[in-house]
């Protein structure tokens, strides 16, 4: 079955082929951005005297009322909007819309507008997550727990130290996202198919109306690059990898073997056959979503690696990877926040576990360095041999020729933690210092977020006012 394409193809396009190349399923993401782009473009065309005001005003009026559900099934949202306008106004009016523009620069502009909004929403969610973690730090400033390397007891630390490590990591994710925002917030509109246009357009005007910081000057690069999508998904992959690692640890910590935490029931499920089960399904899906985002990144890299300049339809397959990655990350941020807020921490188990397995052995070696004038490597070997041949503190003391009380005191987990004084250590003093420093970073990032949100809000208002000048 064939049907006629509204773009005036040289021949009728096969219906199956049209469905195959259609991006409408994912274009709802950029619908509002597309309407904004159309409005800014029409206003610029009228201001420059490129099109008559009468049809331009009628187009603006219809664009103000169009809804996504009003659109017909077309090749993409850009064609669907143009078809909507054609049906409402006739081609003699609607036909002016696409003057001095290609779908190539149009879609590139829409993706950047939507991407910057989603970046700011992701940052906002991360800030809320970090604030929730700050509260848990305050609650557990002195809660002792075992620290791990190779998933084995290593040295004692504090739970607040653990939570602060998450915050520091997420602050870097925020930095990466805001850096990506600044590179994304440049306008490709006016790049045309790839070599701009012979019409006397004003690219700076449309960039300003749409809230971009500046234009992407080279028109070929402007319409054909998707490096910003690659960069953004890479940042999202970093972010969700960190979340996945937290999810993995909480899954372990909630097992009977660990029993460090009890997960909130609303984020778990039971078994269809085993009624006693409390399965960490949400955390497991978060862990899997990280793999999906990494797969999306690989898909983008694979698509981009062999594309000649300028525009190729392959680029259409890249964008859904971005939308899916953003949604996976935003959902995961919210869910991990709620789980971290709501989980019960079994402090008694943490304290008990921090006293097993000679976890203070490193500090005993340090004691020999400080008090017996023993080189560290020698002290390390002596303690290693003592532990291998001993079953308790008394035997260790005898092997090292040290009083048992000294061994007991030196290897006490709480004493060890509170004696850690370098910056960033788990002692209460340094936890409070780090908490204060990270809270300042959170405040600074909030200011950066609000600055960008306010700027975009002002520009939306400017576009609205400019439109009102023409249609009241």
UniProtKB/TrEMBL annotation:
Its EC number is 4.3.2.1. GO terms for molecular function: argininosuccinate lyase activity. Residues 417-447 are annotated as: Disordered. Residues 358-417 form the Argininosuccinate lyase C-terminal domain. SUPFAM superfamilies: L-aspartase-like (SSF48557). This is Argininosuccinate lyase. It is found in: Cytoplasm. Its main location: cytoplasm. One of its GO terms (biological process) is L-arginine biosynthetic process via ornithine. Residues 24-295 form the Fumarate lyase N-terminal domain. Residues 426-440 have a biased composition (Basic and acidic residues). The gene is argH. It catalyses: 2-(N(omega)-L-arginino)succinate = fumarate + L-arginine. Pfam families: ASL_C2, Lyase_1. It comes from Methanohalarchaeum thermophilum.
């Amino acid at each position: 079955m064939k049907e006629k394409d509204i773009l005036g193809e040289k021949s009728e396009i096969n219906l199956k082929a049209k469905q195959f190349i259609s991006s409408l399923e994912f274009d709802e993401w950029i619908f509002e951005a597309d309407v904004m782009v159309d409005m800014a473009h029409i206003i610029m065309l009228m201001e420059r005297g490129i099109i008559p005001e009468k049809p331009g005003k009628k187009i603006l009026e219809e664009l103000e009322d169009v809804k996504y559900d009003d659109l017909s099934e077309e090749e993409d949202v850009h064609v669907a909007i143009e078809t909507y306008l054609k049906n409402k106004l006739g081609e003699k009016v609607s036909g002016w819309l696409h003057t001095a523009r290609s779908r190539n620069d149009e879609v590139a502009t829409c993706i950047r507008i939507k991407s910057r909004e989603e970046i700011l929403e992701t940052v906002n969610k991360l800030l809320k997550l970090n604030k929730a973690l700050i509260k848990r730090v305050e609650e557990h400033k002195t809660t002792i727990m075992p620290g791990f390397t190779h998933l084995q007891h290593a040295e004692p630390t504090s739970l607040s130290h653990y939570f602060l490590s998450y915050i520091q990591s997420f602050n870097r994710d925020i930095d990466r996202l805001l850096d990506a925002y600044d590179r994304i917030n440049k306008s490709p509109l006016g790049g045309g198919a790839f070599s701009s246009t012979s019409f006397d357009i004003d690219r700076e005007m449309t960039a300003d109306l749409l809230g971009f910081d500046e234009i992407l000057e080279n028109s070929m690069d402007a319409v054909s690059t998707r490096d910003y999508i690659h960069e953004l998904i890479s940042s999202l992959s970093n972010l969700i990898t960190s979340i996945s690692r937290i999810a993995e640890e909480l899954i372990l910590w909630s097992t009977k073997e660990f029993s460090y935490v009890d997960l909130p029931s609303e984020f778990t499920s039971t078994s269809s056959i085993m009624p006693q089960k409390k399965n960490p399904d949400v955390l497991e899906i978060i862990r899997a979503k990280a793999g999906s985002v990494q797969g999306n990144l690989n898909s983008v890299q694979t698509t981009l690696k062999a594309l000649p300049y300028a525009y190729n339809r392959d680029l259409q397959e890249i964008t859904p990877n971005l939308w899916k990655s953003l949604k996976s990350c935003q959902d995961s941020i919210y869910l991990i926040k709620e789980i971290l807020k709501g989980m019960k921490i079994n402090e008694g188990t943490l304290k008990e576990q921090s006293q097993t397995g000679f976890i203070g052995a490193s500090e005993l070696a340090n004691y020999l360095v400080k008090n017996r004038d023993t080189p560290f490597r020698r002290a390390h070997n002596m303690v290693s041999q003592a532990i291998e041949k001993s079953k308790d503190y008394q035997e260790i003391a005898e092997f090292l020729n040290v009083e048992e009380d000294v061994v007991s005191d030196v290897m006490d987990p709480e004493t060890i933690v509170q004696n850690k004084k370098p910056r960033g250590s788990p002692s209460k003093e340094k936890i409070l210092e780090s908490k204060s420093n990270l809270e300042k970073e959170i405040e600074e990032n909030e200011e950066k977020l609000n600055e960008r949100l306010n700027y975009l809000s002002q520009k939306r208002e400017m576009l609205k006012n400019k439109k009102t000048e023409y249609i009241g």
